[in-house]
């Protein structure tokens, strides 16, 4: 059994990690850390739990673990990860600390990176696109939630050199802001729908662009665009009056013609061996992926304007956070990737 601990276990991502790790056939959950709940039982934060370790200070929670999940605010992992790695533990980080180049990180997150040397070792944990890099990794950077939905929605088009201009609209449930986020009280979010951090201001923007640039490069389409032409897109996120889920709508100006049936064939071929990605003709819904580590994708070609529209839906707390982290655990330890993870969403 793989001995696992969760740091930041009193947040929404931490709660999902507890749920998934407790059900994983190859994992024993040995420690939970929370500054706010240290010394208290797990039920103090999550009354739905029947059994789980008590909350402890970080040092105690991770002492018996061989892999540590960091479900912590941005900036915490860059201080914790070096110590954990030095102690021989593997780290799967759910924050943004090891996803971006230090200069890009500082520009978007507002403070300098304090462990830049570890960025060379960190492996990016979007398994569908980086599976071969993850086996045996010591440090995994779990992608962002919007990033996961947007990247998987658009990667086939960039890998095939088909995408030109991209406009990205997405909506997320309130849990994506975190348990203590300002402005997420019921009275403020119920019966409301609003954009936030639009037009190049959301921190997930450079990560999405980075991923699509990699997909384009791995598809060898740099002969068309070249490294001096980075991917740039307009991204507008919205806060939706629901607890969980992300729905992405991406508008793509194609660089060459392809009919809707051809798009569907392209996507189904690209994701043919991916257990968590389903490409269908019906439009995706967030409720259909609730609780599952699933991605639902659909496509439409607008014959009148020439634009393509790509839709994707995920559960932001599962495939967008904790479920993806468990999928990364499976990839690191060369386990069956579906272990401990649901393929189908809860309904209703």
Radius of gyration from the CA trace? 20 Å
The share of residues in extended strands comes to: 15-25%
Distance between the termini: 34 Å
Order the strands across the largest sheet as they lie in space: 3-2-1-4-5-7-6
Given the C-alpha coordinates, what overall shape results?
globular
Count structural domains.
Answer: 2
Q: Treating each run of at least 4 consecutive H or I residues as one helix, how many helices?
A: 11
Question: Any overview of this molecule?
Answer:
- The chain is of the alpha/beta class.
- It has two domains: 2-121, 3-Layer(aba) Sandwich (Rossmann fold), CATH 3.40.50.720; 146-316, Dihydrodipicolinate Reductase, domain 2 (2-Layer Sandwich), CATH 3.30.360.10.
- 30% of the residues lie in helices and 21% in strands.
- It contains eleven helices and 14 strands.
- The chain has a seven-stranded parallel β-sheet, with helices on both faces. The protein has a seven-stranded mixed β-sheet with strand order 9-10-8-11-14-13-12.
- Helix 1 (12-22) packs across helix 11 and helix 6 packs parallel to helix 8.
- It is globular and about 60 Å long.
- The protein starts with a strand and ends in a 16-residue tail after the last helix.
- The mean pLDDT is 94.
């Amino acid at each position: 059994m793989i001995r696992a601990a969760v740091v930041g276990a009193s947040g929404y991502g931490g709660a999902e990690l507890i749920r998934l790790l407790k059900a994983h056939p190859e994992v024993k959950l040995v420690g939970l850390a929370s500054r706010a709940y240290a010394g208290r039982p797990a039920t103090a934060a999550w009354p739905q739990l029947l059994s789980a370790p008590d909350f402890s200070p970080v040092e105690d929670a991770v002492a018996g673990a061989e892999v540590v999940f960091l479900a912590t605010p941005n900036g915490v992992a860059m201080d914790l990860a070096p110590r954990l790695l030095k102690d021989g533990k593997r780290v799967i980080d759910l924050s943004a600390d090891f996803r971006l180049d230090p200069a890009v990180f500082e520009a978007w997150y507002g403070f300098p990176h304090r462990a830049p040397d570890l960025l060379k070792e960190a492996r990016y944990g979007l398994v569908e696109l980086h599976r071969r890099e993850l086996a045996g990794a010591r440090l995994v950077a779990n992608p962002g939630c919007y990033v996961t939905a947007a990247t998987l929605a658009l990667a086939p088009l960039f890998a095939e050199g088909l995408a030109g201009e991209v406009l990205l609209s997405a909506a997320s449930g309130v849990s994506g802001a975190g348990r203590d986020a300002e402005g997420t009280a019921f009275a403020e979010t119920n019966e409301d729908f609003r954009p936030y951090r639009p037009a190049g201001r959301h921190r997930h923007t450079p990560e999405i662009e980075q991923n699509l640039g990699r997909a384009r490069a791995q598809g060898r389409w740099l002969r068309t665009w070249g490294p001096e032409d980075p991917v740039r897109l307009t991204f507008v996120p919205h806060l939706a009056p629901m607890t969980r889920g992300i729905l992405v709508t991406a508008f793509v100006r194609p660089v060459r013609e392809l009919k809707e049936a051809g798009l569907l064939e392209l996507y189904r071929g690209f994701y043919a061996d991916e257990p968590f990605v389903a490409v269908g003709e019906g439009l995706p819904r967030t409720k259909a992926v609730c609780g599952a580590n699933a991605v639902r994708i659909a496509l439409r070609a607008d014959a009148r304007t020439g634009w393509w529209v790509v839709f994707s839906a995920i559960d932001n707390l599962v495939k967008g956070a904790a479920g993806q982290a468990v999928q990364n655990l499976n990839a690191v330890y060369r386990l069956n990737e579906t272990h401990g993870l649901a393929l189908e969403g809860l309904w209703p």
